[in-house]
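Section 5: illustrative case.
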């Protein structure tokens, strides 16, 4: 996957990356193109969060790196995530 990602594609990838938890996202209200990503559990408790610029979420390699970083942080907190790899 080398083509730039659209925001919806990046969000679908992120959502699958944190299963069995959910990944929610919202756009910055000031229109900068920065997304806030949060991983939450079934009780809507926030387990982790990051601010993601469009230059990261549109680049498959950079998005994969960010997701792997977030997954590592969640695992250190004791979260059990399903296996995941970046779509090809």
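Designed sequence:
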């Amino acid at each position: 996957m080398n083509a730039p990602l659209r925001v919806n594609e990046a969000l679908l990838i992120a959502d699958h990356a944190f299963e069995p938890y959910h990944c929610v996202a919202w756009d910055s209200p000031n229109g900068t193109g920065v997304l806030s990503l949060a991983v939450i559990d079934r009780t809507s408790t926030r387990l982790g969060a990051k601010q993601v610029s469009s230059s990261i979420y549109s680049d498959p390699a950079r998005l994969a790196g960010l997701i792997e970083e977030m997954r590592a942080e969640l695992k250190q907190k004791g979260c059990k995530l399903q296996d995941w790899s970046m779509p090809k």
